[in-house]
Amino acid sequence: MAKSTSNNKTLAENRKARHDYFIEESMETGIELVGTEVKSIRLGKANLKDSYAEIKNGEVYVCNMHISPYEKGNIYNRDPLRDRKLLLHKSEISRLLGFTTQKGYTLIPLSLYLKNGRVKVNLAVARGKKNYDKRDAMLEKAAKRDIDRQMKEKSKY
């Protein structure tokens, strides 16, 4: 039996994004980084919490993504919260621009991972949830958990 191996290794994840937003569509993008940032990300020192992406002058940038300075980087370290450019084709950028011009839609990075030695960002087009949507999702999750628990107990006997 052949074992399928994936070359993707998740380095950082934005867990709160799925709680706060409805994910409409997601895509894989490259990101422009300097060497010390890549080393710091590989050590797991990246944080996607409260980060978002915006389109400026026909280019997509990730804002508010924190990458801690590399300890051995000395003068080559950059600002941890600087805006970082995402690498996309013009057609992809224009499609994203069409989404973000609609009311309520935004671009959110869901995860940061390695693919064949390169750092990639999973970028999602998201629509914000209201508080009642979040409560409904929590109730559904709790109900599913209870049903699974009951089924597990029934299968024991």
UniProtKB/TrEMBL annotation:
Sorted keywords for this record are: Cytoplasm, RNA-binding
User: Mainly resides where?
Assistant: cytoplasm
- Listed CDD domains: SmpB
Q: Name one GO biological process term.
A: trans-translation-dependent protein tagging
Q: Does the keyword NAD apply?
A: no
One GO CC term of this entry? cytosol
- InterPro entries assigned to the protein according to its UniProt record, in alphabetical order: SmpB, SsrA-bd_prot, SsrA-bd_prot_CS
| One Gene Ontology term of the molecular function aspect | RNA binding
Please verify whether the record's keywords include Cytoplasm. yes
Function summary? Required for rescue of stalled ribosomes mediated by trans-translation. Binds to transfer-messenger RNA (tmRNA), required for stable association of tmRNA with ribosomes. tmRNA and SmpB together mimic tRNA shape, replacing the anticodon stem-loop with SmpB. tmRNA is encoded by the ssrA gene; the 2 termini fold to resemble tRNA(Ala) and it encodes a 'tag peptide', a short internal open reading frame. During trans-translation Ala-aminoacylated tmRNA acts like a tRNA, entering the A-site of stalled ribosomes, displacing the stalled mRNA.
Name of the protein described by the UniProt record: SsrA-binding protein
Q: Which organism is it from?
A: Clostridium aciditolerans
